[in-house]
Design goal:
With 623 residues, the chain is of the alpha/beta class. It contains 19 helices and 27 strands. The chain binds fructose -6-phosphate. Fructose -6-phosphate binds next to helix 9 and helix 17.
Amino acid sequence: MPVVKSALHMCGIVGYVGPKDAVPVLVRGLSRLEYRGYDSAGVAAIGKNGLRVVRRPGKLSVLVAALESEPIEGHIGIGHTRWATHGRPSEDNAHPHTAGSVTVVHNGIIENHLTLRGELEAHGRRFSSETDTEVFAHLIDQEIAGGAKSLGDAVRATLRRVEGTYAIVVLSDKFPGDIVAARNASPLVVGIGDGESFVASDVPALLDQTRKIIFLEEGDVAEVRATSCTITDRAGHALSRPVEEVTWSAALAEKDGYPHFMLKEIFEQPRAVADTLRGRLLPDAGDALLDGIQLPVAGLNRVVLLACGTSYYAALVGKFLIESLARVPCEVDLASEFRNRDPVIGVGDIAVAISQSGETADTLGAVREARARGAYVLAITNVVGSAIARASQGSFYTRAGPEIGVASTKCFTAQLAALSLLALHLGRRRGLMTEAAGQRWASSLAALPEKMTHCLEALAPAPKTEPPLQALAARFRDRRDFLFLGRGMNYPIALEGALKLKEISYIHAEGYAAGEMKHGPIALIEKDLPVLVVVPRGPGYEKVMSNLQEARARDGTIIAVATDGDTDIERQAEIILRIPDAEAFLQPFLTVLPLQLLAYAIAIARGNDVDQPRNLAKSVTVE
Ligand code: F6R
């Protein structure tokens, strides 16, 4: 059986202890998190009949129906909605996971779970699932069996052995008044009520119960009872955390305080990239793992990337990565074109279908076409068990979490991360990349999320309260046309910048390869036309600079995306959006960020609904 990892913080967690019947409170809390998307749900409670758990794949209504035929009662309980990132949505993979007296819900990934599992099995522990979460349940149960004085002690002792990311919430019928919650790189809050307490992964789950919230910090362990909450670090030292009065509306809380899902998702990108790389990138070995997928690398002719829209632009970046690292020819095709001609593809080719939703009809059609002609098809999607994943031989998942804004942002950079892993993996399998080169590459990739965070924070220091790039947006909001220019790996970024602007601001925008301008389109440049030039330091810099000067000579208004510390650009561009310095291969992860923010800012300045632009839906499934 494959190893099934829990989702990261895309899952929903709730907990309750107090005088009320716990299960309805839990179900209500989970329903408040439905907007985030999920594929299975479960609850556990401790009552007269001890610890009971009910879990189901599918919607919350399926769980509610199951609870009608198998009711569980008690005044203390926990619940979870799971968004699978690995391992199909099923009852076995749904949370809570139980071992002996302990049941656990978890968001995150335990990186050393195989080692821990081996040790537990050697001590006679039997596992009923392949999840990493079940390791938590066994370890905590073992601590209790070994005489831990409290559930908090058992959890702290366990956490000291665990490496990885988590938000966990634990119940044990040996300590039937306690909920223990702990966080490390996955959000978790405690809600304080009147003689009752709550726990949740997200504030919206609690807003109709209480507005008094404790935001747990990294490394915190909270012991939550109906009338108290004590917080310690993992070593057991007491900590004090303020109780904050949350004034957000439910709608704002769903967006974690951001005014729009799109902006929230733009800011989630460092996390989405880090999660997509987690456990797959091996910096010491200079290699990448694809979750055990065995690609037919022997006799490989070609890689063909198939996608639509933003995913197609990610594929265009992917071509550079794959050809450079793996030295194998790589073609990129629009899925809608590929499937409707007589494409040359077959045995010896790997087709990679890239789709956020995993449901896009054209991409699905292209997958079927490629398979029918004998190619091996790998899917890169964000939705486990989606149609494209099912129709492909291998599925490799981005771990961006549900993308709610219609304009794709975090899935784009997560797709770049997945394609980087694929390129590194192919390079090493084909023996064309040395270990040392792989190590250099992998360590640069591992450093990217932090650079992305710096870049976003510098461009938009207070995104929840002050719209980003306001002055720029006010100046350009009434323009009819925009031009985006880039070269090499930043050419697809110019295309993506133009697409983002078109789809949410409804301003006509063209993305062009900077070197192609002189072959015709330069005729379009007239006084004050906004020309956005992606011109980071690195290969091609001088050439893009000269293309920029061509546009400037025709009185276009130059907006440059340029590297921190580049002073030459100051003489050439009227407006500069800065990105941190990065190796050429990794620049697209950064250069796209100001373009996403620019499109967002202009759309907001025009009063558009950025989360639900006109004429567009989240996935295009109609033939
Ligand atoms: C643009 C956008 C679309 C999608 C395209 C493919 O922001 O979201 O262009 O990228 O419809 O969708 P997926 O990736 O779901 O196949």
